Amino acid sequence: MIQPATYQLAEAPGTLKVSGALTFATAASALEAGREALGRGKPGTLDLSGVTQADSAGLATVLALLAHARQNGTAMKVANAPTGLEALARVSGVTAFL
Questions:
Q1: Model pLDDT for residues 4-18, shown as the tens digit of each residue
Q2: Pick from 7, 55, 60, 70: most CB atoms within 10 A?
């Protein structure tokens, strides 16, 4: 049986940590949950060390969270981006935003 893709967000002082799948199946809810978490605090780091799977929707989610943080006065940086997500950002021409 194929398991549905899932993700988790964990908030720690100064950090919003994402784990699990950041894909088409989870992107919309991850973005909504991430925006809510950003509304509760101003994390300076988006830690992606727990991301096990990512696609272009996951990359779009990361970029949208960074933009949301910036619009709300927080300079958030990405830490521990998976190699596949970095490669996707490179071919998409958005590496500078990570």
A1: 678 888 888 899 999
A2: 7
